[in-house]
Specification:
There is one protein chain. The protein has 4 helices and no strands. It is mostly helical and about 70 residues long. The chain has one domain (about 15-65). The longest helix has 14 residues, at about 20-30. It starts with a helix and ends with a helix. About 0% of the residues are buried.
């Protein structure tokens, strides 16, 4: 399958406001549908690439704490 998921997701949200992105993320999380996970992954990838080292470190620290048992 040669489907460009990144391009499709980017096309679907192009021009969205911060509020619309928040709604999209919250909706995907609240639904809990696994088919929405690739979209969240694409969002994470875009965020990661545009974030500073300090922002990435803060995120990974929070993520690590969220998965501590």
């Amino acid at each position: 399958m040669n489907f460009q998921i990144r391009d499709a997701i980017a096309s679907n949200v192009k021009g969205d406001s911060a509020s619309e992105f928040r709604d999209t993320v919250q909706d995907a999380i609240s639904r809990g549908d696994e088919h929405l996970l690739p979209g969240l992954g694409v969002f994470l990838e875009a965020w990661w690439k545009s974030s500073s080292t300090e922002e990435q470190e803060a995120f990974t620290q929070k993520l690590s704490k969220a998965y501590m048992n």
